[in-house]
Amino acid sequence: MQAIGDWFQRLYETTGLNFSVFYDAYDWGRYFSGLKMTLLLSVTTILLSLIIGAFGALMQGSPSMLLRLPVNAFVVVFRNTPPLVQLFFFYFGLGTMLPAVEAAGMRVPLLSNVQWAIISLSLFAGAFNVEIFRSGIEAVPRTTLEAAEALGYTRLKAYIHIVLPLAIRVCLPALNNNLVNLLKTTTLAYAIAVPETLYAVKQIWSESQNVFEMMVVLLATYGILVGILVWLMHRWERAMHIPGYAR
Amino acid sequence: MTTAETGHRLAVLRPYRPAPAQMSVRIGPLPAAILCFCVIMAASTAWAQTGPAMLSPLQVIVKWSPLLLRGFAFNILISLLSMLLGTIAGLGLGLALLSESRLLAAVSWLVTQFFRNAPWLVLLFFVMFLVPFQVTMFKTTIPLPDWIKATVGFALPVMANVAEVVRGAVRSIPSTQWEAAESLSFTRRQTMWLIMLPQCIKRMLPLWMNIYAIVAMSTVLASIVGVSEMLTLTAQVHAAEGGRPELFAPLYGFALLCFFLYCYPINVWTARLERRFRVR
């Protein structure tokens, strides 16, 4: 570790390229905590949006109009409005209406900005996931469902054990795209002062005066994060693949 | 942003239609808009507690709507300009992706992946901070106001996405067409411009419109870097009305409504075109 720090220190002295995160412990700490926050945001929003997508798709396929209509409205509204405005609407609009709670002698809002970011981003990506799962479910033949029915599965059990596993395999490529998009959208949390990577890096470059270098670090960070996610999704795709059917 | 039109290979399943192919929306745009507005208004009932001298949220919106709508028009202008720029650059990049020169194809692949995978907001920061506020060329100084830089910032990811769309569309045309063109002694350039691209337009149009809807929604990001578009104006209007917290929801709700009314028809139209042009 020391060698890396020394190398970047020397790089700064010889070329003027100031990658302060790699030799300055304070900058590194800020960057690292920002990275952790980005990871927290991504993982929780991905999981929540998958749950929202699965439930939404289940509700959308239900015979009851009362269940279908709210899901359709949710999908249409969240797909056709900017995620940033949604975030502001939730955090400023709804956040200020919720009652404040007493914590450690201070009045703090019921939900913090991190929690609002998680809620808002999950709903945004969840709306897309509903559509993706629905198109996957539509690819499952009716006969399979009828076979499940004949075996005595209830609607819910058939959905969990038969339809969803098949549907997920079908819609993985589209899901992959959407989750990568979600990872990129977590940068929006910057706008409500969630200390994620972009926020931390902006702080570093305004103090260390190294905008260009930190830009490079920032773009590389997101490139690597997206790369890891894509790699994981491909592994998952391979693990899920049914022997004898896929290529 | 999807390029996942590859069919699945599970023999047990019926053909898979990628997500945006049909919207399955059984509520019309107008009822949806009304519903959305009602929710916003219901969420803002808190104004009832305030004194009689203060304007209700609806009155505030009506009072400031000319300014806010002008901001929205600015958003649309930015989106149209960046779409224009991005499409021209993306067409070039897409043709470079298809080029026969290995080096050119590899470099343009790298550029495409880079701009496709970087977050829009990060690219916007990239352009905002690293492009100077004015350029001096031949002793004339051309100022670059921040909204022009923002336009360029949006055009970069558009370029990469359009390039992918162009590449995908040209690839989707049967290779027999290339051979037929060759046998009619068309040069490669002629084949591309006279035979391939005209056929591709139909395939590209829905995807291109999809990208446009995304750009239109992304223009609000410009408010983070200080361009005075709709969201910035919304915050200023909120401050001008005394910064009452109960005004947040209706004001941002109004912004949501504007974008919804603009983007939803585009999406419906895209879905319709996609159904009509489905090649299968």
Compact overview of the structure:
The complex is a heterodimer of chains A (247) and B (280). Chain A is mainly alpha-helical and 247 residues long.
Explain the overall architecture.
Chain A is mainly alpha-helical. Helices cover 77% and strands 3% of the residues of chain A. Chain A contains ten helices and two strands, in the order αααααββααααα. A two-stranded antiparallel sheet of chain A has the order 1-2. Chain A starts with a helix and ends in a 7-residue tail after the last helix. The model of chain A has no long low-confidence stretch (mean pLDDT 88). In chain B, strand 1 and strand 2 form a beta hairpin. A two-stranded antiparallel sheet of chain B has the order 1-2. Chain B is an all-alpha fold. The model of chain B is unreliable at 1-7 and 21-25 (pLDDT under 50). Chain B has helices spanning 29-43, 57-97, 102-117, 120-130, 146-171, 175-183, 188-218, 230-240, 248-277, and strands at 134-137, 140-143. Chain B has one domain (29-41, 57-279): MetI-like fold. In chain B, helix 2 packs antiparallel against helix 8. At the A-B interface, helix 4, helix 5, helix 6, helix 8 and helix 10 of A face helix 1, helix 4, helix 7 and helix 9 of B.
Strand order of the largest sheet of chain A: 1-2
What string gives the helices and strands of chain A in order?
A: HHHHHEEHHHHH
Low-confidence stretches of chain B: 1-7, 21-25
Beta fraction of chain A = under 5%
Radius of gyration of chain A, in angstroms, nearest whole number: 22 Å
Number of strands of chain A: 2
Mean pLDDT of chain A: 88
How many separate helices of chain A?
10
The rounded distance between the terminal residues' Cα atoms of chain B is 22 Å
Share of residues in helices of chain A: over 70%
Count of beta strands of chain B: 2
Largest sheet composition of chain A: 2 strands, antiparallel
Would you list the SSEs of chain B in sequence order as H and E? HHHHEEHHHHH
Provide the helix percentage of chain B.
55-70%
CATH class of chain B: Mainly Alpha
Number of helices, counting only DSSP H or I runs of 4 residues or more of chain B? 9
Structure classification of chain A: mainly alpha
List low-pLDDT spans of chain A.
Answer: none
Largest interface: A-B, 65 and 64 residues
Share of residues in strands of chain B? under 5%
